[in-house]
From TrEMBL:
Residues 1-21 form the signal peptide. Belongs to the membrane fusion protein (MFP) (TC 8.A.1) family. Residues 217-282 form the YknX-like C-terminal permuted SH3-like domain. Residues 69-124 form the Lipoyl-binding domain. The lineage of its organism: Bacteria, Bacillati, Bacillota, Bacilli, Bacillales. InterPro entries: Biotin_lipoyl, RND_pump_MFP, Single_hybrid_motif, YknX-like_C. This is Efflux RND transporter periplasmic adaptor subunit. GO terms for molecular function: efflux transmembrane transporter activity. It comes from the Bacteria. Keywords: Signal.
Length: 289
C-alpha cells in the first residue's frame, strides 16, 4: 500500500512539473511574439507652417429695398428665400400720392422680409426687405497687427467650412484697427451651388513660415520621454530608437533633424509597448505616407 501511494505521488509530481514546463514554454512563445505596429514613410521636402484665421461667412452684398412714402402694401410678389432678377416686380404700395411700384434694383435672394400684404409700411420703419447676394460669399475676420504682413489683396488661400475645403481670395485688408485693436479683413469665396450658408465659421489657412529641405514625419510618430525626443525606425523587423530634433511642428506633420532618411519606415501606431531593438510585425493600416 505504501508503495502504491509513493507511485501515485510520483506521478502527480511529474505531471505538475510537466505542466509548469509547458507553461514556461508557452510564456516564452508569447514573449517571443513580435509587436504589431503601423508605419509611415519619412519624406523630404519643405514644411509649410500655416496660421489659422477664423471668421464668419456673410452675404457678398446686401441691398435694402426702401419706400419713398408711407402707405398700404396692396401687392406683395415675393417671400423670404425667393430668387429675383434685376427690375423684377417685388411689391406695390398705395400711398397718398398714388401707387408706388417697387422693383428689384439688382439680382439676388430676398431676405429679412417682415411685411405682409394689406399691412401699412413707411420709410421710418426701415427697409421693406433686402436683396442679398450669396455668390460670392464674404468671409469677415479680424487679425492682429503682426499678421497683416501675411495678407495681401488678391492673395488666395485654402479655407475650411463645415469640413469642406474651398479657395478664398482676399479682397480687403484694413489699414486702421477697429475698436478692439484688430484689423478687419475680407475674403470672397465662390458659392455657386449654394452649399455654404451665411453665419458659418470659416478657417482660413495662411502660410506663416517655411522649413526648407527638411525631413518630414507624421507628428504621431514623435515620442518625447525623459527629456529625449525620438522615433522608432523599423530596420530588419526591429524597432530602432532614433533621436531627432524638432524644427517645426504642426498637428499632422513635423520637420525634424536626425538620423532618419527619406523612405525610412517610422512607427506611428503601437508605440506604447515598444523599446529599442524590439522585434516588430508591420501591419497595414491607414496609408500615412
Amino acid at each position: 500500500m505504501r508503495k502504491f501511494f509513493l507511485t501515485a505521488a510520483a506521478i502527480v509530481l511529474i505531471s505538475m512539473l510537466a505542466a509548469c514546463s509547458q507553461n514556461e514554454d508557452d510564456n516564452e512563445e508569447q514573449e517571443e511574439q513580435p509587436t504589431a505596429v503601423e508605419t509611415a514613410k519619412a519624406a523630404s521636402g519643405d514644411l509649410v507652417i500655416k496660421k489659422s484665421l477664423y471668421g464668419r461667412t456673410e452675404p457678398g452684398s446686401t441691398t435694402p429695398v426702401t419706400l419713398q412714402s408711407a402707405g398700404e402694401i396692396t401687392e406683395l410678389k415675393v417671400e423670404n428665400g425667393d430668387t429675383v432678377e434685376e427690375d423684377e416686380h417685388l411689391a406695390t404700395v398705395k400711398t397718398a400720392a398714388g401707387s408706388q411700384h417697387i422693383n428689384a434694383s439688382k439680382a439676388g435672394e430676398i431676405a429679412q422680409l417682415t411685411a405682409e400684404e394689406g399691412a401699412m409700411a413707411s420709410p421710418d420703419s426701415g427697409p421693406l426687405m433686402i436683396i442679398a447676394d450669396f455668390d460670392p460669399l464674404t468671409i469677415n475676420l479680424t487679425v492682429a497687427a503682426e499678421t497683416l504682413d501675411l495678407l495681401g489683396t488678391g492673395d488666395t488661400y485654402p479655407v475650411t467650412i463645415d469640413d469642406q475645403e474651398y479657395e478664398a481670395e482676399i479682397t480687403s485688408v484694413a489699414s486702421m484697427p477697429n475698436d478692439t485693436g484688430l484689423y478687419p479683413v475680407e475674403a470672397d469665396i465662390s458659392n455657386g451651388d449654394g452649399h455654404i450658408t451665411t453665419g458659418t465659421v470659416a478657417n482660413l489657412q495662411v502660410p506663416e513660415n517655411r522649413v526648407k529641405d527638411t525631413m518630414i514625419l507624421p507628428t504621431e510618430a514623435i515620442v518625447t520621454e525623459s527629456g529625449e525626443t525620438f522615433v522608432y525606425v523599423v530596420k530588419d523587423n526591429q524597432a530602432v530608437k532614433t533621436n531627432v530634433t524638432i524644427q517645426e511642428s504642426q498637428s499632422e506633420e513635423t520637420a525634424v533633424k536626425g538620423d532618419v532618411a527619406e523612405g525610412d519606415q517610422v512607427v506611428v501606431n503601437g508605440l506604447l509597448t515598444l523599446s529599442d531593438g524590439m522585434e516588430v510585425n508591420v501591419i497595414e493600416g491607414e496609408d500615412k505616407s
